[in-house]
Amino acid sequence: MIRSLLLLCFVLGASVHAHAGLADNEISAESVTGSNIAKKQRWNGLPLNKSYAELSEQEKLSIHALYQDIKAGDEPPYPLKGMRAIIDPVNKITKKILVTGNLELLLTVNANGEGENVEIISSPDPKFTQLVISILFITQFKPAICNGQPCAMQFPLSLSFERRFN
């Protein structure tokens, strides 16, 4: 009997143990053509309830580290109300759809802070993945800043789901 489903929300670079040789706080993804997202990412425990503006400089730098080539003064996209705007609805879905595995998505956020398209890197369940994509599309983002102007950029979302038996 499943007594609990644990959602491990290692957002923006989950710990994925399927890749041998990586530390617990690293993820290795296959090369994605045209993506600026780093192939090896680290999660540094960012607060879920803070907007990008509310993050400390160190926390912002840890987000910047997720990207291969982000210039000084540029900023990546980020949920306007913080990661909680994504994680809370995903938690509700996991109470109805029990999934195990990794979900890795790359959302392209346009210069208006809206999701335009999603690239699915890995999915534990097609129906679940489509529900999470719907959440991403209704989430308002702070757009990326490139050379002082709002611009389009990808936003990585990586979640790991595990069933635990008590």
From TrEMBL:
- Residues in the signal sequence: 1-20
Origin, by domain of life?
Answer: Bacteria
Keyword list, A-Z: Signal
User: Sorted alphabetically, which Gene3D superfamilies does this protein's record hold?
Assistant: 3.30.1150.10
Specify the protein name.
TonB C-terminal domain-containing protein
Q: Which organism is it from?
A: Iodobacter fluviatilis
